[in-house]
Structures are given as C-alpha cells and as structure tokens.
Amino acid sequence: MYTNNPYAQGGWSNSANTHSVNDGTWGTLLPQAPTYGALPSSTSGTPPSTLTFYFTEFSPDLLNCVVVGPQSKVYYKVIPGPPGLTYVQKPDNSSILCIEWQQHPMIEVREIVPRQAVGQWMLPAADGKSRIFEVKGRRYVWTAENNFISLYSVYPSPSDLNARISNGKPGSIVLEITTNAISAGLLEVAIASVVLLKCGRNID
Predict the structure, then answer these.
(1) What is the CA radius of gyration of the chain?
(2) Topology of domain 2-198, per CATH?
(3) How many secondary structure helices (H) and strands (E) does the chain include?
(4) CA-CA distance, 39 to 177, in Å (whole number)?
(5) Residue 66 burial (CB < 10 Å; 0-12/13-18/19+)?
(6) What is the pLDDT along the chain (204 residues), one digit of tens a residue?
C-alpha cells in the first residue's frame, strides 16, 4: 500500500513506509519558516525589504524549471514526478510541496498546508480576480491588479502587501516577496502559488 504513496516517491518522510527515500530529518526543524536562517531577515522597526526569485530555465514550461533567488543561487527546482505529479524540491532534493494533477488537483506544502484540493484551500472570490486562502490561522488574498498578481493580508491589516507575481523576460516569471512574509512562513506558499496560478492548468 505504502509503496504507491506519491509523497514517498518524491522524498516525503513516512514513518509507516519502510520504502521512503527521505531520511526523516525534516522533522528536526524548529516550528519556523522552512527557509529560516537561509535568507536575510528584516530588522524590527524598519520597513520590510523585498527579495526577488526568478522561475526560469523552463523545460519546456513552468512545471519543469529552476527558481533562482538572492546571489543568483538556485533555491528550488520544480520537477515532474511520476505521471500526474509535480514536486518542488530544494537543491538537496528534499521536497517542500507536491501537486497531484487530477480532475480536482490536490496540493500539500510540507508542514504548512495539509493535503487537500487546491480549489478548497485557495478559494476563488466572486470577482473572478482573487483567491483567498489561510496559512497558520491568518487569511490572505491573491488578487490580479495591473500587470501583477499581488498577495495581501486579509487580517489583521488588509493593506499589507506581502508579495507579487509578474512576467519577467520571455521564459521567466518573477516573484517578489517581503522578508516579513518569509518570516511568516509564506515563501513556500508563494512558490506553490506561482506554480498553480501561472501553469495554465485548471486548478479547481
């Protein structure tokens, strides 16, 4: 039964699965953003700075590419798994999220978003331009405006801009995200959102 677990095939730890290819060390992380300590953080009392990530080297599209961040380092890889699966991995090949492409696509973001239907987690708003979701008890909204898809906090402050997605030069997509948003654990969610919102597939 467990040998057919798509998460195990992608390097996801499963104590009940003796065939898991993950060494299980993910669980040793403290309950902080998965990138805690790997990226610069903002200083209390100062305006949040912004970090930029580029989805590039499409082969042939967004579902097989690399994500380049500060200092031109590769921070993530978006890769195809077994048929119907897409993983996002760190350079050490540990998976941070999995998307199952089916009639109603499923998503899981490690330790942040439990496995569920994308359309249930990222709810489309009535205006057809926004999607509302929740992370760690806080609500956020992606909304299309001008040439961006912008991420705002819904609560406590509806005016906080956390991130935005835009088209870069041909063959690239740009994610700009504040260090405050990264500290709040939104980087992996934003990476997942780029894949979902810009892949051109139905996600409901």
Answers:
(1) 17
(2) Porin (2.40.160)
(3) 4, 13
(4) 12
(5) middle
(6) 323 334 344 444 333 333 322 332 222 222 333 333 344 433 334 455 999 999 999 999 999 999 999 999 999 999 999 999 999 999 999 999 999 999 999 999 999 999 999 999 999 988 888 999 999 889 999 999 989 999 999 876 667 899 999 999 888 999 999 999 999 999 999 999 999 999 999 999
